[in-house]
Amino acid sequence: MLTIGQLASYAGVTVRAVRHYHAKGLLPEPERDHSGYRRYDAAAVVELIRIRILAEAGVPLSRVRELLAAGDEGFAVAVAEIDRRLRAEIRDRQRHRERISQLVAGDSLALPPEAVAYLDRMHEYGFPERVIEIERDSWILLAAQMPDQVSAFMAIKHAQIEDEPLRRLYLDIGDLADCAADDPRLPALADRVVAFLEAAAARSAGVVEEEPISADLIALLDAAFVEAFPCAPRLFRLLEERGFIGWTDIRRIDPAG
User: Fold this and answer.
1) d(Cα 140, Cα 19) in Å, to the nearest integer?
2) What does the pLDDT read at residue 20?
3) Quick count: other Cβ atoms within 10 Å of Cβ 257?
4) Is 154 in a helix, a strand, or coil?
5) How far lies 39's CA from each of 1, 18, 35, 44, 46, in Å?
6) What are the E-state strand segments in the chain?
7) N or C terminus: which one in the chain shows less Cβ crowding within 10 Å?
8) Which residues pair with 244 in a beta bridge?
9) Contact 185, 176 (CB under 8 A)
10) Is residue 238's pLDDT more than 90?
C-alpha cells in the first residue's frame, strides 16, 4: 500500500495535484488506516496516470471523468471533439500573437501604411511632437470610421505637406500650440489660412466631394483640436470674421444664411 507521496511519485505528479484531483472528484479518496493515513493501491496509480495523461493532452478536467468511463467509440468521439477545440484555440492564440507582435510597430497598429508614412514625413519636416500626436489621433479616428476613404484622404495630405507654402503654414500653426488667445500673431495666421482656402477653392472649383466626413466625426475632430490648442476658439472667431467656419471641414459662410 502506498502513501499519497509515493502515489504521486509513481504517477509522475505532485501531491498537490493528487489532492486537486480528489477535490474535483476524479480520483476516489481511500479510507484512512488505523494510523490516520490514506493508503493507495496499484489501481489508484493506474487511474492517476490516466488522469495525468489526459490532463497533459489538454483535456479539460471537467471532461476527464467522462473519458475515463467511455468505451472505445465514445472515447474516440470525445477526443476528436477536444482536438477540434484545441485546434481552434491554437488558431485564436496565433492571431493574438500576431496582434501582439504588431504592438512594437507603434502607429502602424491602428493606422494604414500611407498614414504612417505621412506621420513619418511630419517628423522629417520638424513638426512639434504634440502636433504629430494630434494628427495621429485624428487619423486613427478617421481610419476607424471611414477605412475605405483613408487612401484618398492621405493622397491629398501627402500632396499638401510637400507644398512648401502650405507646409510652412502648418508649421506655424504648430508653433502656436501653446499660445494664449490674445497672441498678436493670430490675426496674421488667420489671414494666411483664409488666403490658402481661397486659393484652394479657386483650384477646385466645380469639384464635387464624393465622400464627405460625417458631421459627428467633424465635431469630434474639431473638439480635439480645440482641446489641444488654447488659442483655437479665438482663431475660429477670426476665421469667421473673414467669412469661414469650422476647422476639420472649413467652409465659407453662406451669405444667405
Assistant:
1) 52
2) 92
3) 4
4) helix
5) 6, 13, 10, 10, 15
6) 244-245, 251-252
7) C
8) 252
9) yes
10) yes
Question: How far is residue 169's CA from residue 193's CA, in Å, rounded to a whole number?
Answer: 8
Around Cβ 64, how many Cβ atoms within 10 Å? 21
How do the residues of the chain divide into helix, strand and coil, expressed in percent and rounded to 5?
70, 5, 30
Phi, psi of 253 (to 5 degrees): -65, 130
DSSP letter (8 states) at residue 244: E
Cα 112 from chain centre: 13
C-alpha cell at 93: 492564440
Beta bridge partners of 251: 245
Give tens-digit pLDDT for 177-217.
Answer: 788 889 999 999 999 999 988 887 776 554 445 557 888 88
Q: In the structure grid, which three cell numbers stand for residue 145, read together? A: 470610421
Q: pLDDT for 83-126, tens place per residue?
A: 888 888 888 888 777 666 555 555 556 788 888 899 999 999 99
Place of cell 469667421: 240
d(CA 141, CA 218): 10
Q: Which residues contact 213 (CB under 8 A, 6 or more apart)?
A: 142, 146, 221, 248, 249
184: left (phi over 0), alpha (psi -120 to 50) or beta: alpha
Residue-wise over 195-205: b if at least 16 C-beta within 10 A, else e? Answer: ebbeeeeeeee
Handedness of CA 220, 226, 229, 233 (dihedral sign): positive
Residue 86 grid cell: 484545441
Which CB contacts under 8 angstroms, 24+ apart, belong to 12-16? 12/49, 12/52, 13/48, 13/52
